[in-house]
Amino acid sequence: MRRRIQIGGLAWALLLSGASGCREAPGTSAARVATFNIRRFGVEATDLGRLSSVLLETRAAVVAVQEIEREAPFEALEAALGRAPGGGRWAHVLSQCGGGRGMRLGFLYDASRVALVEAREYPELDPGGGGRCGEGERPGLLGVFAAPGGPRVHLVNMHLPAGPEPERVARRRVQWDRALAVAAGLRRGGASRVLVLGDANSTGWAQDAQGERTFIEGAVSDAGLALPSGALRCTEYWRGAPGVLVPSLLDHVAATPGVVASARVGGYCARLACARIAEADVPEDYRTVSDHCPVVLELR
Question: Is a pLDDT exceeding 50 seen at residue 242?
Answer without folding.
Answer: yes
